[in-house]
Amino acid sequence: MAKIKGANELAKYMTEQFVTYMETPKEQRKQTRSSAKALREPWLTRWFGWGPASLMIWWKIRAERQSTSAIKRAKTQQEL
Count of CB atoms within 10 A of residue 13's CB? Predict the structure, then answer.
C-alpha cells in the first residue's frame, strides 16, 4: 500500500477499493474469505503465542496417559 498524502488521495484510494470490491462476484468474495480463514492459525496461538498451546498439548497427553494407566491398574486388579 502506498503512502497517502492528502484527503483527496485518501478518497480516491477508498473509492478504488470499494469499486474493486463491488465488481468482484459475491461467490468469489466468499471463497476468498473462506480460504483466508483456513490459512489463519488458531486464535489461541494468534493471541498468546505457542506457550498456552504447548501447555494444552502437554495437559492432553498427560490426561491420556493417566486414563490409560488407570485402565491398566483396573485390569490387573480384576485379574488378581
Answer: 13
C-alpha cell at 13: 484510494
Q: How far is CA 62 from the centre of its chain?
A: 24
pTM of the model: 0.42
* Contact yes or no for 77/69 (Cβ under 8 A): no
> What are the angstrom distances between the C-alpha of 16 and each of 20, 25, 40?
6, 16, 27
Contact 32/26 with Cβ under 8 angstroms? no
| CA 10/CA 13 separation, integer angstroms | 5
Count of Cβ atoms closer than 10 Å to residue 10 Cβ: 11
Q: Which residue in 24, 4, 23 sits closest to 14, CA to CA?
A: 4
Could you read off the pLDDT of 47-73 as tens digits, one per residue?
A: 888 888 888 899 999 998 888 887 877
